Each structure stands twice: as C-alpha cells, then as structure tokens.
Amino acid sequence: MATPISLVRAPIDPAAKLECVSYAPFRGEQTPLDPTTMIAPEQIAQDLKQLAEISKCVRTYSVENGLNKVPELASQIPGLKVLQGIWLGSNRLKNLQQISEVVELTKQYPTVITGVIVGNEVLLRGEMTAPDLAANIRAVKSQIKLPVTYADVWEYWLKNREIYEAVDFVTIHILPYWEDFPIRAKNAAAHVDSIRKRVAVVFPNKEILIGETGWPSAGRMRDGALPSRASQARVVSEILDLAKKENFRVNLIEAYDQPWKRALEGTVGGYWGLFDASHRGVKYPVGVPISDFPRWKLLMAAGMALSVITFGAAMLTLRRRPWPPRFVSWFAVFVMATAGGALLGIAADRMIHESYGIGGWMRWGLLLAAGSLAPPLCANALLAGRPLPVFLDLFGPREHRTHQALSIVLGLTLLVAAILGVESALGFVFDPRYRDFPFAPLTMAVLPFAALALLNRPALGRRPIAEAVFAGILVMSAIYTVFNEGPDNWQSLWSCAVFALFGITLWRARAAQSQEPAVQ
Asked: Domain map of the chain by residue range?
C-alpha cells in the first residue's frame, strides 16, 4: 500500500492564481447528455465563488443547461473573467441559436467576457468542415468587439491552417495522456512545451493559448501513461511552472471532476478535476502530503484483517485433520494470505473509483467479493484435502453435485471470477480503449485457485468442457492484449499474466467423478 508522497508544492498556489480553468457545473447524476438538465444559478454561483479563489478566469463550452448564466454570475465576483464558449456541431439551427445568445452576452458583459471560443473540437469530431467553421468564426467576429478563437487538438490546427486566418489567437489542446503515442507523466510538461513551440513556428504572428491541458487522477494506463493523484499533481505543477517561466497562458482541464464523462470515456474521463465531484473539495490542499491512496491506513487495516482471516481458516481446518499438512501447503496459504492482504486495499480503492452506475458497482463489487472470499475458502479446502470444484459440481447431474456447503460457496466464487474474468478479457480484445484493468481483485482470486488446483488436483477425472472453453478464451485474450497494449503498460502485463494463470488453472481442472450416467 502506497504511503503519502510529498511534492515541492501543490498544483494550486495560494500566492498565484491560475490563468484559467475549464468549468462544467454538473454534479452527481447531472449530465449535459440529457438536454433537459438545467443547473440552478445558485449551484453555479457557489462554484464560481470557490473557483475565484484559485483562478482569474473560467472557460465555458456552451450556453446550454444553465451555463448562459455564468457571465452574469461572474460579474458579481470581483476579478473573475470568462472565456466564453460556443458549442458548434452538425445542427445548423442550434449553432445559430448558440451564436446569437453568446453575441448578446458579450454586449451585456463586455468587461467580464475576455474572449469567445467559436467551437470546440468540431473538426476532431468531424461534425463540420474547415470552410464552414471559418465562416462561423467570421460571422461571430463581425458581430462582437472581443477577441475570437477556435479550440481543437493541436494536430487539427496543423491539418486545417486556413482557420488561422479567421481567428484573433490560436487555442490548442495538448493532452499528453491522450496522444496517439501516450506520454509518461514525467515527460508531460516537456511535451506540452515542445508542441506549443512547434505550433508557434507554424503560426508565428498570433498568441498560442493552451486551451486544455492536464492529467487524470484515476483510470486505466495507456502505454506508460499512468493516471494517479500523484501523477496529476506532478504534471499540473510542472506545466504551471513552465508557463510562468516561459510566459505563456494555460487553461487547465478542469475545475471539477465530471462523473458524466465516464459514460463516454470510461473511468479516466471523470477524473481530470482539481476538485473532487462529490464534496467539491480541492484534491491537493497546500501543505498536505499527496498520496495515491489517501485512505491508506484504513485500507491497510482491511488487508491485514483478510490475511488474519485466511490464516485463521487454515488453522481451524487443522483441528479436524489427523495428520499434519505438507510444508508446501502452508507456503501456499502464506501466499494466499499475503497477496490477498496486500491487494485488498488497492482493489477496494479501484472499485470506488472505477464503479459507475448500478451495473458497474455490481460488476466490481462481485469481483472484489470473489477476491476476498477466495483466500480463506481455498486455504480451508487446501488443508482439508478437497480439490478445486468444477462447474459440474454445482450444475451437473444431481447425483454428482457436491453437497458440502464450503465447496458450493467456493464453486460459486470460482464461477463469478471466471465469468467476470472472461468478460473483462474479451473487453480488452473488442473494446479496450476505456476499459479498466482488474489486476488487483482478479489476482486475489486467481492465486488461491491456482494453488489449490496445483496441490489438490484429483488423480483421475475428465476435463470439463466449460472450464476448457473459458481457459482458451482467457489465454488467447491475454496474448492479444499483451501485444495490443504494448510492453510499457504494467497494468496490462499484470492483468494478462493473471488471465493466463486463470486459463491454465481452469484447463487443469478435473471433475473428481465420472459424469457418465450409471448403467441400468
């Protein structure tokens, strides 16, 4: 379990406000994906008051869902400015409505709105051509007196240079984590600076504003890019230091974690904020050590408890055995207890951050339950001399089903782990981009299963078909995922090793009894 990590300073410096930060007001179940969502002005005012303490400016992306109230509410907070966004898409009528409303806002609040961003990543999404976008930008410029720009990922500026002629300044997005070849956290600030200078060479006569940059605090690895609290704090701090040193403006993404983005981008989409979503608390208070596991003491205590329970299950089993167990059996119990105890806190923390919606909580909750039950159940079975159950012991012909309660519970635990393991493994083959790696809870379950299958394997018996099919899927998926994710992604390598071990374990499974019907 990781202990706190101290940094030179927290990303938010109370002595120097941020230049700007992206703002979306959505909390809890609120989402802009529902067009009927309307955020109360009181909620926005509360956020803006908090953000004004750390930032000179907020960047918005739209005037929908109540965001048209941001300039008015910001005007009531001394010193807070707004970089006003216009959301453009493929709906021309909606585009005109957005433009009309923002034009009116610039006339009402000319000292609050410092610039207008006409469109956000509309070229990236392919919802508008460059000529159409340029026409919209010029239409807005003809109606207002404020600077106008367009915001997109830096590559799309280089691909569509005609947009440069239409804007007053260039707004680029540089997200090292999301690059086609992801950048490690330690190199992220240097990457941002390198791209900024590259774009400045191509567009030399206008300011280059970094309209989005940052790092996620949770989610899956991409190559060597690891989302974590410590990494987020490091990347943001180093980018801000670089911006101060080289005198360029940066807008961080984003103010608050946005849970709704997880529906589009997986876990990682919801954790780019400087403040957490639920309590609206700053993630990195000044002077407080930064840890990837803020609850590490509680999680460590839970892990130690699981280790004790596992050893306790083994000791209680010995009271019914007339002979002493082999040394290798005790060593296997030690491995089960140690691995389970060490990984329980990590697995619980990842369940908290990676579970989204009822389905997500059920999926990760069941996997964590399987990982927590497997060590004591397998320790009991190992010292009692029972083999790893097979699915036929639970669902086969009635005369061959097991009637031992602990064997039934262990068999159900194995079944849950196998179903969720196969589902996860197939996900990394067919839809891997936003999927989280279940390395911690799956390891907690698979190591005990593997030890039990190795040491208490029946001498005779058939290989069950279901286990063989699951084994093939797990092993083939693991091989594919290793090559697809690359050698720098340790979450992938770890998960694939567990998938492969699980596959081998299921392949070695044997039904202790013949499943053929008795001859009459």
From this structure: 20-270, 296-508
